[in-house]
Amino acid sequence: MRQGLRPLCAALWLCAGSSAVTSLPIGAEDLFTNSSEVPEVLTATRLRQPSTEVPGSVTVLDRELIRASGARSIPELLRLVPGMKVGYRNGNQVNVNYHGTSITEARRMQVLVDGRSVYRPGLASVDWVDIPLAIEDIERIEVFRGPNTVTYGANALQAVVNVITRNPQDSLGTRSKVTVGERGVREFYGSHGFTAGNASLRLSLGSRQFDGFDELADGSNYHNGSHAEYFTLSALHNLVGEQTLEWQVGAKQGENERPTEDFGLSDPDVEAEDYFGLMRWKGAVSTSHELQVQGYIQQQNRSQDWHTRVPIPLFDPSLGKLYQLNPQLANATVKNPFAVVGTTPEETALLTAFQMTVVNNNCMTSCNESTGTTQARTHERRTDIELQDTWRPFDNFSLVSGLGARHDRADSQTFLGGTVSNDSWRAFSNAEWRFAPNWLLNAGGMFEHDELSGSNFSPRIALNWLFVPEQSLRAVYSEAVRRPDMFEQNAVWSYQGRNMSPLISGSSTASYYQVARAPGDLEPEHIHASELGWNAYWSTWQLSSDIRLFYEELHKQISEPLRLDNFNPSNANQSRFHGAEGQLDWQASPRDRLRLTYAYVDNTASDKIDRRLTARHSGSAGWMHEWNHDWHTSVFYYGADQLNEYPFARTDWRLAKRFQLAHEQRLEIALMWQLRLDDEPLTWAENNQRSRSQWLLSAELDF
């Protein structure tokens, strides 16, 4: 599958490469420019606001910070966000959650790329390594820390990560970058920006490869790397009458390795394909009124095929029927078929039939096995369209409202027993009212309805007091929901053997005895959150800070691990978080920038997994310095006292030299060194590295 994308990428690159123009300098200016010195953000309410007027806490990771960090993925960048927990299920399955809870599945955080949700509708996850996006194309990342269903709908339960890519107008010219390093890191990135009439376009393509973790807890090799190829094409058309049309298309194909499983499964690697298209039109009705229409379609395909060699009795129909009646008895029967007894006549009859299968297949000595193939495939598609109206009828009042509709569809014989679809619609509104010179009221709500979970309303109200022009105190109360995804609500999870030899019950197709079925009656999770905050910007010192005190209660929480042999999701769990967070960003001199974050999170949870997946103390610190002769250095520290009972502490060092070559040509050579300060696995006992350090080298050319 991966071979199919390479010729297309090459053709697009050659076509675009014939019209190169001058590019912007490395570290171009920030996305927003305005007369106010207070930094502005967009993510909180969809209104452009100074950070002192936002109804919540927002962390901004700008281009300078992203480059200096040396991070090669969005999850690693999110370690710079206070309260964010970054865990690894294995080398290519990254899980990010705000404040914690079920970190093995990123269920409770909305992730957007240029307004497009990359949250999978079918299996409740964000596949970070499969997003068709290069770090080099990111302009900034805004993270709203707290519930924000009122603005972005269900799944924005605890936080929103909004990735904003560079405007094609600001990325003209050609860039190429190569990164190599230990642990099998091999990355290539290339982009070309050009103009055509009233349009600016940028084509980006690349490939990435890494080996993942080195070894399992027992010291054996760990099969958990990844490799992929991707491309994106972005365009901005300046139309008449202050209208703009933006569109994007992109694709990614690759392979994510999986460790060898039990029951004779081998090489069950996942072939991953992601495709998307997005279009957005903006137009000014008047100087105080703007309309926006956005629509996108995306598809995510996952294919996992492997060879099997399984004891024939595990496909016995009698055992499958027994599992539907009494899963505990069936599992115990597999371990010792002649040491259990049925409690009803039907169980006894099925148990007797299975015991005969065990005897007939010589399982008292070496059990007869059947070989064949097994498939686990999913195809998830989302179509979304939204109308947004931004209106400022008075100088002291702004309103953004909208309507949206979405169609989700997931096809998986393995996980859903076929096809499941869900239609939903939403209506939202956020108002900002300056009712006194120093007082600002933000209020909003989102009403949503979908076929699987019914209707929900999520409100938020916030009061900001700007006691001086560049500082404010705020009080916020909000509610939010997360709707159960298709897998939690509609799972029919089973594995089927195909082309089995020898035949089982006269057929080459047979079903594994365990089948997991969802209850189908789950309700949405709810959160009630309160916060007090202080946001300040001292323009004289170019110092910004934000401190937040929070209290959050999650109700009807679905926390149970979703396992084939124990599939019992329920709304029986709850969690409570309270604590404090802070961030500080200081441009100490024209050549020095310092950054600090810290989070204290006290978590009480009814489920033990939720309790151990929250770090009580976590934070980061960074120093970026520009030396003479275009030398640049940065050092970052990341730490958490525990994540799944393992502490984490790491320092990242970066040394870069920039060269001015011929006219408008620049070259940057960068050396990156990561050093773990602890000697612990990362999140799970299986995730180990033989060395605590890693070296990376990159070369980037602009022309």
From TrEMBL:
GO MF annotation, one: siderophore uptake transmembrane transporter activity
Xref: PROSITE patterns: TONB_DEPENDENT_REC_3
Signal peptide boundaries: 1-28
One Pfam family from the record: Plug
InterPro entries, per the entry: Beta-barrel_TonB, Beta-barrel_TonB_sf, Plug_dom, Plug_dom_sf, TonB-dep_rcpt-like
Membrane topology: Multi-pass membrane protein
Subcellular location: Cell outer membrane
Cellular component terms per the entry's GO annotation: cell outer membrane
SUPFAM superfamilies recorded: Porins
Keyword set, alphabetical order: Cell outer membrane, Membrane, Signal, TonB box, Transmembrane, Transmembrane beta strand, Transport
Keyword Membrane annotated: yes
GO biological process, one term: siderophore transmembrane transport
Domain TonB-dependent receptor-like beta-barrel span(s) in chain numbering: 378-655
Main location: membrane
Domain TonB-dependent receptor plug: start-end pairs: 52-160
Family designation: Belongs to the TonB-dependent receptor family.
Record-given protein name: Iron complex outermembrane recepter protein
